[in-house]
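Weekend entry, working from home. Most of the wet-lab plans are on hold until the incubator is repaired, so I used the time to fold the two sequences that have been sitting in the queue since the last round of cloning. Logging both here for the record. First:
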Amino acid sequence: MRKEIIINSTANEIRIAITEEGKLAELFVETPEKERMVGDIYVGKVAKVMAGIQAAFIDIGLQQDAFLHFSDIGNSLGQYNSMLNDEEVDTDEDDDESEQADERPQHAESDSPRNSSRKPRHQEPRKYEVNLTKGQEIIVQITKEPVGKKGVRVTSEVSLPGRFLVLLPFDGKVGISKKITSFKEKRRLRKLVRSILPATFGVIVRTNAENQDEKLFLQDLEQLLTTWKEIEKTVKSEQAPALLYKDMATTSSVIRDLFSDEINRVVLDNKKLYKEIKAYVNVFSPVMADKIEFYGKREPLFDALGIEKEIATTLARKVWLKSGGYIILDPTEAMMVVDVNSGRYAAKQEQELNSLRTNLEAAREICRQIRLRDLGGIIVIDFIDVEEEKNRKKIFDEMKKEFRRDRAKATILPLTDFCLMQITRQRIRQSIIHSFTEPCPVCGGSGMVQSKTTIMSNMERWLRRFRTESHEHRLILRAHPSMLEYLRDGGIFSRLTMMMIRFRVVITAEEDRTLMIDELHFISRKQDKDITQEFIN
């Protein structure tokens, strides 16, 4: 499979696209307002310990306190255990467990502690014993960026990812990525690492290290150890809460973590960024330096490669399929709901076969959209009904096959009798749609506002309370122009006129474009002040 990393840079935004066979598969966006936070290390103070939910809230100086689950605390707060969420590892040379290495050194964190999926409801949650007190200082590392109203998630099991190694301070373990399958290579890497690793430190050897030279290992390890020593110095000089270590920006981290032999080329349109990345790769992977290209043509890079059009689908609620069917993606507070529709592909003959074909095509596109939008948490898919069990299994197998490309951990359940599929997917940062959009100031993100009829009914109820409790008869009404247009409709016997007659009050209407459509303000002429809140039930 041909894979490419395409990086477009402007003054206010950097966009990194990962394409597979020329089709957009993943997208990262970094702006000054939304910098990458995963991997940052802080010294914080325990703000609250809540044994009932097996968690503590840590003040690290951000707007919201960080969430620390008890399962993310090592055996000792002064010693850090192995970061198994970075890459699943072999810690025994004779281990024959399945290979499920996670290639993201982002302290990969799911919505459930220590697991990429939610635990079945019938399972008793494990109890963790910790010794945390309010006001206690603690070093933590961000594993998941804030999502909605939730703050960042952190762990006390600190690790530092490099190009070939992940340094585990105060942990003597040496782990090897399970994606390295050669027993001989595993033994070589383990022996090499143990010969150069200082006492009390541990490492995870990453997949990129396979068949690499000892010199590159030493460079990577020395850089990580130097970084850790600087963190130790900063701890002694800083007072909690404080930032101890800022991980690489998105662009640099993508090159560090994803630029491997599988990538055919990296294309950039920013000369400065091109030189920086070229210099980095020349040090750590000189044989791959020729894969880095600078794009200097007049036509925008993403336009030239057709990526701009594909990005538009990440903002669309409806995504069309080649067959004429389509999928609808609707976010809710607790989950993402995906609906599959046959559209123009619906046919009376061979209904079961047509439904299966549409579902299989939809399964491939849904997996792509999940990766592209970086959807996490619970995802429920409503496929078109198929009656035969073997067809449901084909859809299930297709989803599992497509998810093998996904670096995030996911749990996929078979289709129910109603052709519903449940998926839980690892969530590390907000969905990509949050990088391009913000909630509508009118509807608050719901997509709906009160009807003008409802607003007028609310106005009538306000006037009834006002006339019952007050002896005043003259008001000024300030409202959005479109609402006043509705109230004035009808000429002499307009809705506003009829209300004034009914409640025996004189209302002078004034337009205010700064107000929301459903926002009304009543001003007392006698008191010359806003009295709206005084008569709201």
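Second, folded right after the first finished:
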Amino acid sequence: MKIVTADQMQGIENQAVARGISLEMLMENAGRAVATQVSQVLPSVIGKRVLVLVGPGNNGGDGLVAGRYLRDWGAKVDICLCAPRAQNDKNLKSAIQRGIPIIHAYEGGNLAEFGIAISSADVIIDALFGIGKIRPIEGIFKEVLQKVSLVKGRKSKPVLVAVDLPSGLNSDTGEVDPSCPYADITVTFGFPKVGLFNFPGAEKVGKLIIADIGIPQDLAQDINIELITEQWVREALPQRPLNAHKGSFGKVLVVAGSINYIGAAYLACMGAARVGAGLVTLATASSLQPILASKLTEITYIPLPEAKTGVLGSKAISTLQLELGNYDVLLLGCGLGQHPETVEFIKSLLTDSSQLSAVSCLILDADAVNTLAQIPEWWRKLRRDAILTPHPGEMARLLGISAKEVQESRLSITQRSAREWGKTVVLKGANTIVAVPSEAAKVNNAANPALASAGTGDVLSGVIAGLAAQGLSLFHAAACGVYLHSRAGEIVAEELGDAGVIATDLLPALPRVIKALKES
């Protein structure tokens, strides 16, 4: 599923019209899709009060069509016109012919009538503004949206359904006008828009529904940003043949852990094991090995020389060199810490390409990423592709900017960085982004506060490593890993809520997610 900008969407619609698909047909399909979603939210639409907020453009036309369908299905519909419509507007005429009450809010003096309608509404349909250029919302539009926000704060609040996107949300950047309401459901048409996944706008979207309104999918084939979908992940997951053995599913070497972050090594190893890697080996500071062995029963070990108790020393490089050729994937960084000798070890390993040539896939997380940030033009020294999995703070260190700047332009920054560095980049956080050097990118539509706890990133790195070991490309391993990880978080949150979920809760959920995908 492609993700588009406003200009790209306009171009796609123009191409659809050139193929003989009329704008009238697209509007009819869009309005019906909104009405259908409303009917699915309510136990029954019969007798329910629906208020449609109608703006001046095509978005308002979509709202009028939705109101007409809901009236035909038995709902009590009111339409609030916040701007005049053309005299020959067929959809407005159809509403009038059906006896749907029309509130001409733009004429002034009718806000009392609007107040009555909104106070009794079970559903509000926001069809004021679509993907066009957003100016500061003023006048009657501002008054109406402020009233919507007030009634949404009531105990018996109505369901707010946004048409294409919540009014006041910039479809390209995710920026929002102060009047932009919080939707419960956003029904977007044809293809999702970039701004729906960028904060602060993403917080306004609610549940995102992508409605097929008859636009041919091939019109977006040249767009390089996609949504990670369940179907795509199902098709990308590695096969598990009946005659397989542990070597069939790859060998992962995890270099992780230090005296202060022992759990990171456990979580990364188990993340790889729980998605089906054939063999997982942990290389860690020698004094930590007995501690972790008591918990990681299925994992094998390479004890490494220490700088001091529980801290990896620079001499560990010689021990590791002897082992790298036995593994398909190297995951480096989880919980290693920033002791000077550990940093020296990481630098030595990453800047000598001959040492890494033995493994087919390299994944860098946490302290490996933090160490890269200390090496000027590090990407010129690490000449092979690798998967980097920074959170916004780590990404900011790599780029020499603030985390706030990263968050404000997550997609463009991730794409640009992947191209410049020649690496696969996973920018973690709500709506995680995966980008490759060609600037192709995938966005995961998942924002789950249950995952905002220590160690969940270590699990994700392990998951990606485990999938890469089974033969997936770097891009596929990263994107599938992000999806499985977030879906496991959703399953756990459904059971426990979004507070108190810990990283280890994700581990048994991972194989359940894979099983459900393969069976669906």
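Plan for Monday: verify the second prediction. The chain has a mean pLDDT of 95.
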